Predict the structure.
Amino acid sequence: MVHVYVSSVIQASAPNVWARIRDFNGLPQWHPGIADSRIENSRPADAVGCIRHFHTQDGGIIREKLLGLSDYDFSCTYEILESPMGVSGYVATLKLTPITDGDRCFVEWSAEFDCDPAREAELTRTIGDGVFQAGMNALKQHFGRV
């Protein structure tokens, strides 16, 4: 099993950042790698079990299922159902933790998955840098600090 973990600090409160990222269908509004998104079967975007179907900027199609959403913990857990990446058993969590010293929050994005051992380093880099860190950098930029 491959583990990917990326963390950062965003110069905004956890509730403010959560308001930006909470919408499971809202990736195109804040993540630079996502072109468009829709929730299948017209389900609410915060309903556990809903499936988002989105396109990446490079034309990839990904389907993900919402496994958990907590406004109390500022966290979202989801699994990949279909993707061109060649991963299986992919489960990821995006979580915010308030930092009490200032108007900031600690953001963690992690995933576990299986893949062909020959692609492990490539996928770890692609997911860690190209997905997780790219999303965090976009959030930092949105909130005025890179």
